[in-house]
């Protein structure tokens, strides 16, 4: 079966005026328009294509890369809003429709949104939804501390960064564990810091425990070298000053300089730290 909203590996059956007709093992056929056909090909070749519906709601394929695939989340730009709903740019000729009932809040032209792509079983159409919580579930969590995961940043709050973990779970990076500039829509690797009794998941961007100190320690060494061997920051410095100058929490800063001090790479003075 040819799956809409997904990549399909199909066989080139024949070339016609509209384009190449492709088929699967079950005898289903679908068109790949001429503008997307490969420069060289032979009848019988396998080809990987993405299947969706064109502007006339006909199944069609493309070699373009969509920004989101079926049952997954993407960070999409709203290019139009009509009386029926919003339309998102998802990298294909036909834009992705997000009806008003699927909008967590009214979408506006020019804004970006986290959108989930699903197949409407009644209409057999691909549809987007920004009501992402309904597609996430923390009832059963099989993750464990230190597991490496894929995350998508959904939004930032005073508490930290809310994220989607492995496309399945909700999670949080606490503000004190953020040491770099991250924004909504960022995709990156992370590590499970803790799975709480209520199945809420805390994640960090660096390996938890002692290993997470090392990148911060190296970063401080680089900053010391760039500053001529001295920084006017120490374990009594204001946390906001440390955050502004180094982009890390005071807790992480203290752990890092403690490591450097034990390794005899710095000396901690009353008014700052100095490179040895």
UniProtKB/TrEMBL annotation:
The residues covered by the Conserved virulence factor B first S1 domain are 4-63
InterPro entries referenced in this protein's UniProt entry, alphabetically: CvfB_fam, CvfB_S1_st, CvfB_WH, NA-bd_OB-fold, WH-like_DNA-bd_sf
Where does the Conserved virulence factor B-like winged helix domain lie?
Answer: 220-275
Q: Name one Pfam family in it.
A: WHD_CvfB
Q: Where are the transmembrane segments?
A: none
Q: Tell me the PANTHER family matching this sequence.
A: CONSERVED VIRULENCE FACTOR B (PTHR37296:SF1)
Q: Which family does it belong to?
A: Belongs to the CvfB family.
Write the protein's name: GntR family transcriptional regulator
